[in-house]
Write a structure and sequence with these properties.
This protein is α/β, with parallel strands linked by helices and about 500 residues long. The protein contains 21 helices and 14 strands. Bound molecules: adenosine monophosphate (AMP). The site of adenosine monophosphate (AMP) has 13 residues, from helix 3.
């Protein structure tokens, strides 16, 4: 099967060829002909399967004729996070290069008046997160009655983040006569219900997650024991383990996942203090322009260690990522799959190492049940125990650098990762989690889902896909709220 068998225009085939793609992925081969026919689609597929092109490609051909009127987009794509929305927009740039379609992004954290100006000019494709879309709609700058194609992408993530009431409200404003494409990595009953409500006689397509990814990823688990330790010192030990792993693995580029935004800050600052000057952080309390800039630096290799929350698990598409470190075991098994799937893409080798504490046992069981595979347990190599002690005390060259380090101010940053110091150790002992920046009113409105809780009983998340600190149970604690004890 080749792209030319799918009924796409010559302009599109040229753009696809320019992008270097020769063969459609299974979701593309199955969905594109039906979308071109105007059939609704219920696609069970996750990121990495090529699903974005499975809807952007036919949309470009369908929308090629016709013109958009002011404030009346001709198609609408709903995405749960800003990063995903931006990535879909990139797809339109790449595949739409021989067409004259225009698209606009309506996402939180960016200047709304600029976005409204864009809408006024008329857009063919509107890519939006639900919160910002509703804001702009409520203010009267958007009319949805001309939308002929609706895409609801990553529906299960929308559900997790409490966006479904917004999505239902948005769909109620659309014309009945339209094509609807709904994609979801999983099909919980709530998404099935939504599909029954929004789709008409849909073509159901299920593609398995890219199996090659899992096979090319070397997964392992490093257990951090914390007998007699309090949570602060266990967390400190985990940071020391992380540094040892980075030293041992020497990743070309790595994502370091934390469960909580606050810990993203703590781990990032800790790395920075220990001299990892190519580290950066990414979470939803950062202004959008900084988030995009950080991602860009990571893609270009200026940043090589990116500490982040699950925000990046769905949106980030970096073809040659060498490592994923889970600083925390994710509490939801499917998040583990998404996280490690950032590496080992397109058949490449990848390494995913998870740092765990004994209280994470139930979450690890859940992950192994879901993947059907036991994750290798590993000891820190060589003189692991002693190395760890040293790393916790402040570095390999502690003895050598002691006198020099004593004279250093506690907030002084060593020049390189290898110049670890007592100073950084002291700073860690006194470090206080940063108070998260308060987003602007607009951003806050956009980021907070209107529904308090999703139907699946997960913690509340914002449009960056993150858990609020207060809602999170984290691995080091045995204090598990009742709602999570029953979680499968
Ligand atoms: P997605 O699942 O849409 O996030 O796509 C995952 C990655 O696959 C992206 O980097 C796409 O650029 C890439 N991709 C999409 N379609 C193809 C194709 N037919 N051949 C090779 N790569 C593709």
């Amino acid at each position: 099967m080749s792209f030319s068998d799918l009924g796409l225009s010559d302009e599109l085939l040229n753009a696809i060829s320019d992008a270097g793609y020769t063969t459609p992925t299974p979701i593309q081969a199955q969905a594109i002909p039906y979308v071109l026919m105007g059939r609704d689609i219920l696609g069970c597929a996750q990121t990495g399967t090529g699903k974005t092109a499975s809807f952007t490609l036919p949309m470009i051909d369908i929308l090629a004729s016709g013109r958009a009127k002011a404030r009346m987009p001709r198609s609408l794509i709903l995405e749960p996070t800003r990063e995903l929305a931006a990535q879909v927009a990139d797809n339109f740039e790449i595949y739409g290069k021989y067409h004259k379609l225009n698209h606009a992004l309506l996402i939180g954290g960016e200047n709304m008046s600029e976005q409204i100006k864009r809408l006024e000019k008329g857009v063919d494709v509107l890519i939006a997160t639900p919160g910002r879309l509703m804001d702009v709609f409520d203010r009267g700058h958007l009319l949805l009655r001309d939308v002929k194609i609706l895409v609801i992408d990553e529906s299960d993530r929308m559900l997790d983040m409490g966006f479904i009431p917004d999505v239902e409200k948005i769909v109620s404003k659309l014309p009945q006569m339209r094509t609807t494409l709904l994609f979801s990595a999983t099909m919980p009953p709530e998404i099935k219900r939504l599909a029954d409500k929004f789709l008409m006689n849909p073509k159901e397509i299920t593609v398995s997650p890219p199996a090659t990814a899992a096979e090319t990823i070397k997964q392992s688990l490093v257990m951090v024991t914390g007998a007699g330790r309090d949570q602060t010192s266990i967390a400190k030990r985990k940071r020391a383990v992380l540094r040892l792993l980075i030293e041992r693995e020497k990743p070309k580029n790595a994502i370091i996942f934390c469960n909580r935004k606050r810990d993203v800050d703590v781990v990032y600052r800790s790395l920075e203090r220990h001299g990892y000057d190519t580290a950066a952080r990414l979470h939803g309390d950062m202004v959008q322009s900084v988030r995009m800039e950080t991602l860009d630096k990571f893609k270009k290799g200026v940043v090589s260690l990116l500490v982040c929350s699950d925000v990046a698990a769905r949106g980030l598409d970096i073809p040659a990522m060498s490592h994923v470190f889970n600083f925390d075991v994710p509490t939801h098994a499917d998040d583990y799959i998404h996280r490690i799937g950032r590496t080992g893409r397109a058949g490449r080798e990848g390494v995913a190492i998870t740092i765990a504490v004994p209280a994470d046992g139930k979450y690890i069981d859940g992950i192994e049940r879901l993947t059907g595979k036991k994750i290798d347990r590993e000891e820190l190599g060589g003189d692991g125990g002693a190395d760890l002690e040293r790393a916790e005390r402040g570095g390999r060259d502690r003895g050598r650098g002691r006198d020099r380090d004593r004279s250093r101010k506690s907030d002084e940053k060593p020049a390189t990762a290898n110049a670890r110091s007592d100073a950084s150790d002291k700073a860690e002992k006194t470090e206080k989690p940063e108070t998260p920046r308060q987003p602007s009113d607009d951003a806050r409105r956009d980021e907070k889902p209107r529904a308090e809780k999703s139907g699946r009983g997960r913690g509340r998340r914002d449009d960056a896909g993150e858990m609020d600190d207060k809602d999170v149970v984290f691995g080091q604690s045995d204090q598990v709220p009742d709602f999570l004890k029953n979680f499968p």
